[in-house]
Amino acid sequence: MGTVTAPWNQLLLNALESNSHLKHSSYVQLATIGSNGRPSNRSVVFRGFHENSDNILINTDTRTRKIEELKHCPFAEICWYFTDSWEQFRINGRIDIIDGSNPDSEKLQVRTWGNIISPNCCKFHYVQIREKSWFASSPRSRLQYLGPYPGLPHLSEEPQETSVDPSAGPVSEFCLLVLDPEQVDYLNLKTNQRLMFTSTQSQIGERCWTSERINP
Amino acid sequence: MGTVTAPWNQLLLNALESNSHLKHSSYVQLATIGSNGRPSNRSVVFRGFHENSDNILINTDTRTRKIEELKHCPFAEICWYFTDSWEQFRINGRIDIIDGSNPDSEKLQVRTWGNIISPNCCKFHYVQIREKSWFASSPRSRLQYLGPYPGLPHLSEEPQETSVDPSAGPVSEFCLLVLDPEQVDYLNLKTNQRLMFTSTQSQIGERCWTSERINP
């Protein structure tokens, strides 16, 4: 995991800024590989970068099919098209699933209270981030995780939760996805410029990025 | 290949209609499986349905990576998010690649002139559709196919074609993708309604669709 921002990061921040008046500018399409070996593709919401890194945060429900798929094959590609600036980012990388079952969560609490934790100590740190993401979600979003099992037949008789204790921490269905980008393919349809950013990882886990202009 | 429109088709036509004021409403994200076994995802343009069917048409360049990927694994999932009506269609199916190398193209010409061709005679018919799609593209779009090899390093010295004979047929780089949907997952974020459309194919190639309301 890199702790210094990558060369494509500023392009993405600029695109987010210039498209920020559009609610859907944070919607991205996440492709994974289905258990049947076929591609799977759905919209998810970009929840920001993991602090001091290029790692992309996404909230989801542990009961959705993408979790099963990512456990089977952790690789994913995000396609992010900005409808106002006509820019596309194809972000390919590996996804970590941070759910409540993280065996280190107890250890973490002690470590957090004792302030021993380091930002590079990912798994420990992510448990905190999961909690932060939960509290950053709107009460309405949080309620979704208490709803009926996604993808199962809809039974209108099922009782629905109508509120969630605002001070309560994340429910077990709430889960954080952390995408660690390895390659970014950037295309600007206004200038017809395309840039390919490719990374390699050093033995101590630092990413080194190179970029090349390629034909669109 | 179905020749009667599927039950999800009207939902999609409605979404296209209610979002038609947005240029990007015809942009969809197409996920395939890369040669390295990882997911691949990019925006492509919906070019309409193949007449009298639910088959989705997409133009592309034979030199792009998706062609190599689809030859290796013909399955794909389109994620189509309509930013104004808040509707998402996840369309999963198999893709046929119709390029100029189709061995039946000569036969086709004779058959077309003789009017023997039937709309169900897919491969023959698609060669015609490829030609139709070519002529339906703008001169600027057609010019792209004469440009330098997509994805290769950009060399500004490369000579660029500046015009294309308007009456000339499709160049060999022009290629038509035909997606035959097998499953459609529809989600309406305004009503929170989600419908799953699943098809089975009869021995004579007719699709039979069932639909079910499922939890979002």
UniProtKB/TrEMBL annotation, chains A, B:
Pfam families: Pyridox_oxase_2. Keywords: Flavoprotein, FMN, Oxidoreductase. Its EC number is 1.4.3.5. Its cofactor is FMN. Residues 6-98 form the Pyridoxamine 5'-phosphate oxidase Alr4036 family FMN-binding domain. InterPro entries: Pyridox_Oxase (IPR000659), Pyridox_Oxase_Alr4036_FMN-bd (IPR024624), Split_barrel_FMN-bd (IPR012349). Pathway: Cofactor metabolism; pyridoxal 5'-phosphate salvage; pyridoxal 5'-phosphate from pyridoxamine 5'-phosphate: step 1/1; Cofactor metabolism; pyridoxal 5'-phosphate salvage; pyridoxal 5'-phosphate from pyridoxine 5'-phosphate: step 1/1. The keyword DNA-binding does not apply. GO terms for biological process: pyridoxine biosynthetic process. GO terms for molecular function: FMN binding; pyridoxamine phosphate oxidase activity. The keyword Flavoprotein applies. This is pyridoxal 5'-phosphate synthase.
